[in-house]
Specification:
The structure holds two protein chains of two kinds. By secondary structure, chain A is mostly helical. Chain A contains 15 helices and four strands. Chain A has a single domain, classed as ABC transporter involved in vitamin B12 uptake, BtuC (Orthogonal Bundle). In chain B, the strands form two sheets. Chain B has a two-stranded antiparallel ribbon with strand order 1-4. In chain B, strands 2-3 form a two-stranded antiparallel ribbon. Chain B is globular. Classes of the chains: A mainly alpha, B mainly alpha.
Chain lengths: ~325, ~325
């Protein structure tokens, strides 16, 4: 994945610093806010059912689970690695929760097993990548087949059902009025990840590794350890998402969350995180999650099939990346 | 370097021989030549796709959109055949190659001219092509009774004792071998992957080489679109859903390095055959097909660990030489 840019144009050195206002207006997050507002307005005009507290609450379920994983994935991608196995971790964690259910495990035990499985799977990825020095994209394609494969071996074409009523709260419960538990958890996690990435030395180390892992290593950053922790965090978040999805659906099939990994990565890239590592922000990822949730929900209200929505998600991903580059070509400046 | 590659391919040949031997212990008829030929025929499409993916991976890129390209092209040629049954099959194949190459070129242009990372572009086109398949078919599908007999029969015909589908794979293997080892296009694809900076100084346009690789992978995916649709006699939105990862898995098992520059036609073919043998063997030795995913996952991890060992050894040898000098 380490593409070396050979056709780098001479870097423009500004003769004076931009004003903070100009920087804020031209930032990636500002672009995302504009896109989000536009989609919100279009949705409101297109369907009379959109602008309603309960509709907006239902909307949030479209992105909270994937968004939780995207928060950790953003950190991982900023550090220059990637995890394609997150959806498979969801499937395996959900399957093991189902097995525990057959053995009459209570709700706390189910949650612990779901999150614990995620953490262990993430640690397994991290160990292979950092311990053996293997490329993460290949390792996680392998573990993606392995984790979901184990779920298929255990379940085959069967399903686990009959989760206890108290377990349903995580995916179906509301904290206050229309504010769901999932949304609350997502916002809280976003705050934690924002603080971790943008306000701690650990976060600065992630950026340092993503920009130049060799330089980071020689600056005393324990690169392998930081990356290992990030893989564990990504697995942990997949485990949390697995608890939420299993609780929301009330059943486990081995094909659960199929294809989520690509949606999570789309969210992260749309949020302005560089797929080559070294740049990105949590605010961008949260906005991207919101945008993707609004697009899919809005199309759903208009009875547009999910497969057609995916065209727009794909186009959105390419356009949002391509337009600033074309803009820079035309006007010699990029909203950074 | 070539000794190392040979070592790697020999290792894979040995692994496949061992695999076949183990299967034969449980089910003696498996190793019969007719059966092995049938397994090869069944794996032909994966072999062709893996070759296209290899060209892309060699340039330090990745094509996640191949399976969606296959579905879209397959749907378009099936619709062409259903609506204009008079069009001869060679023209249909030409159509498949062209549409596939155009879709691949779309990926390639974004990567070449805008410098967007391949993984991002093809992640986008993965969903766009798949969605377009649904749109061009209006949410319906094309099945056997709307396809002409010639459309279905071509690849089932026999030529020199082998099904025509196998011959498609054999021709692809030979063509890829010649292009990758004997032409400037093939060598520039390797050069870009081994060392992009050196490639630039050697007068190779890195972006253009990537563009060419994506045109090749697209063209191959388009061809396989026709082959897939006529083999399984159904064109639908879900055709080959998720298959992009099998293609990449075949390359990784075949020793194609995801970091670019390392990989051979023989390796990619053997990697695809390894997966093909496993999927054909599981039913006959009474292992539930639900085991297949976990087994191929384990094979991918084993392959990448072993290949990393090989690369590391090479580094040590260079160091020793440097010390001696």
């Amino acid at each position: 994945m380490s593409a070396i840019e050979t056709s780098a144009a001479p870097r423009r050195i500004p003769d004076r610093l931009d004003t903070p206002l100009k920087g804020a207006v031209l930032s990636w997050e500002a672009l995302l806010v504009a896109v989000a507002v536009a989609i919100f307005v279009i949705n409101s005009l297109a369907s009379p059912y959109f602008l309603n507290a309960w509709s907006l609450s239902d909307l949030t379920f479209n992105f909270t689970e994937k968004g939780l994983i995207a928060l950790a994935m953003a950190l991982l991608i900023i550090s220059g690695e990637i995890d394609l196995s997150v959806a498979a971790i969801i499937a395996l964690a959900s399957t093991l929760m189902g097995m525990a259910l057959q053995a009459d495990a209570g709700t706390p035990m189910l949650v612990a097993i779901g999150i614990g499985t995620g953490l262990l799977c993430g640690a397994f990825n991290g160990l292979l990548v950092t311990g053996l020095g293997l490329p993460s994209i290949v390792v996680t394609i392998g573990t993606m087949s392995l984790f979901r494969g184990v779920a298929f071996i255990i379940l085959g074409d069967q399903a686990f059902k009959g989760y206890p009523a108290s377990f349903a709260f995580f995916g179906q419960g509301y904290v206050w009025w229309v504010v769901s538990f999932e949304l609350t958890l997502f916002l809280a996690a976003a705050l934690v990840y924002w603080f971790l990435l943008h306000r701690t030395s650990f976060g600065r180390r992630i950026f340092a590794i993503g920009n130049n892992s060799v330089a980071a290593q020689f600056s005393g950053v324990r690169v392998a350890r930081v990356k290992f922790i990030l893989f564990c965090l990504t697995g942990l978040m997949a485990g949390v998402a697995s608890v939420l999805i299993t609780s929301r659906l009330g059943s486990t099939r081995p094909s659960i969350a199929q294809g989520y990994e690509l949606e999570v990565i789309t969210m992260v890239v749309l949020g302005g995180v560089s797929i080559l590592g070294g740049a990105g922000s949590i605010v961008g990822v949260v906005l991207a999650a919101l945008i993707m949730g609004m697009v899919t929900f809005g199309f759903g209200l208009l009875n547009v099939p999910g497969i057609v929505m995916s065209i727009f998600i794909g186009l959105l991903l390419i356009l949002v990346i391509a337009l600033p580059i074309i803009w820079r070509r035309l006007f010699g400046r990029r909203p950074a | 370097m070539s000794a190392l590659l040979k070592y790697r391919e020999m290792f894979l040949v040995a692994a496949i021989a061992l695999l076949i031997a183990a299967i034969t212990l449980r089910f003696p008829a498996f190793a019969r030549p007719q059966n092995l030929a049938a397994v090869f025929n069944d794996t032909s499409i994966l072999v062709i796709l893996a070759l296209g993916q290899m060209a892309v991976i060699l340039t330090r890129s990745i094509d996640l959109s191949m399976a969606s390209n296959l579905a879209l092209t397959g749907m378009i040629v099936a619709l062409t055949n259903a609506n204009f049954p008079g069009i001869p099959i060679p023209l249909i194949i030409l159509e498949a190659l062209t549409i596939g190459a155009v879709l691949g070129a779309f990926n390639g242009v974004l990567i070449w001219k805008l410098g967007i990372p391949a993984i991002v572009v093809t992640l986008g086109t993965l969903t766009i092509f798949r969605g377009a398949t649904f749109v061009v078919a209006g949410g319906t599908w094309v099945n056997a009774d709307r396809m002409t007999p010639a459309f279905i029969a071509l690849q089932r015909g026999e030529f020199l004792g082998m099904p025509v589908l196998s011959w498609f794979a054999i021709v692809a293997i030979v063509a890829f071998y010649l292009v990758m080892t004997r032409t400037p296009v093939g060598r520039s694809i390797y050069a870009v992957g081994v060392n992009p900076s050196a490639a630039v100084y050697a007068g190779i346009d890195v972006g253009r080489a990537k563009f060419v690789a994506f045109c090749i992978s697209g063209m191959v995916a388009g061809l396989c679109g026709y082959l897939w649709v006529s083999r399984y006699v159904i064109a639908a939105t879900e055709v080959a859903n998720g298959y992009e990862l099998n293609i990449i898995a075949a390359c990784v098992i075949g020793g194609v390095s995801i970091a670019g520059g390392i990989g051979s036609v023989g390796g990619a073919v053997l990697g695809a055959l390894f997966l093909g043998i496993i999927s054909n063997a599981l039913p006959v030795i009474n292992i539930s097909p639900f085991w297949q995913m976990a087994i191929s996952g384990t094979a991918i991890l084993a392959a990448v660990i072993l290949n990393a060992r090989g690369e590391r050894k090479q580094g040590r040898i260079i160091l020793k030489k440097a010390e001696a000098a």
